[in-house]
Each structure stands twice: as C-alpha cells, then as structure tokens.
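Usage

Read records sequentially. Each one opens with the input sequence:
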Amino acid sequence: MFSIHLSNNALKYLKKAEPKLRQRVHELIRMLRQEPVPAKHYDVVKISGADGYYRIRLSSHRIQYFIDWSNKQIEILDVERRDENTYR
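and closes with the structure output:
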C-alpha cells in the first residue's frame, strides 16, 4: 500500500475546486494507494524524459504525480484544468 502526499499547489487548487471534482480526486487517491498506475480505470500516461512521473486525465483536469517505488510513496504534484493550450 502506497502513502499519498499532496503538494501545496494541488491542495490550493482542490480547496477552490467544485465538490464533484474533489470527490473524483478523492476516489482516485483511494485507487492510487492500491494501484499506483491505474491504467485500466483512468487515462494514465508516463511523462517522457522523467522517471517515475505520470499524469492522469480526469475529465477536463490533469493530475501530475510522482511515484517513489522504493519508499512506496506517491506525491501529487499538480491538479490543473485542461484547455486548448495544455499540450502545446
């Protein structure tokens, strides 16, 4: 079982977010504790050029996180809204 830590940026964004998004992120966190790369349930992509960094697309939001496999820890780095300039 992995432990989950949220960065200050992620916490700030989630405090301002709508309750539905907070609930979905909470469900995602529960799943990440058991399965750090839940590719069967979510759109998960390993970020190229960076070992251990992943992003999950959650409707119109993107969640970036880092997995420390040796210590069984996950750091959620950022939660941000996707727009037309997200992948440019």
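Summary fields computed downstream for this record:
- The domain at 3-81 is CATH 3.30.2310.20 (YaeB-like fold).
- The chain has one domain: 3-81.
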